[in-house]
Amino acid sequence: MAQPSNTDAMPDTACAAGTPTVAPPSRREGAISKIQPPQLLTLEIWMMKNALATAALSTLLPLSSHAVDVTLEVEGLDTKPAAGSMLLVGVYSEAGQWMDKAFAGRQFPVEASAKGKLTVVLKDLPDGPLALTLYHDVNANAKLDTNALGIPSEPYGFSNNAMGNFGPPKFEQAVLTPKAGTVLKIRMN
Asked: pTM score, two decimals?
């Protein structure tokens, strides 16, 4: 009966005779482990499913992030604006931003020949719910002028022609979800 050799018990070290032993392939550094055919087939199917799912979802991305253009027909502007008079339009997509003091909006020149009306196009608005604020800077001083009580003395308005009680309307009153080609009629106060 043959005795087990010492080389089987000694991993990667020299055997008693001074010759190095060789570890089995699964234990050698850089060795490639063998994948059984059923596992390989399962891996290929998994990779194919993930590739198809990724391709399908990537086609939806452009649809969900497209921008819309909205036409505003504004009435009630001051009929005798100063040179440099502007209509300022604020665009808000979240209630937390609504009426934020940092006015990030779009500006459109208002000419005296406008006769209190102006049609403008807001390009590339984000898709989804929005609320708009408007004011006509009649004297071109880059701020909404108010009287002693804090009530605006220059024309102002909101999307949905929303009105607040003793102050500006809430975001929920002014919010809308415009589609491509939407025309909004806004009456300034």
From this structure: 0.64
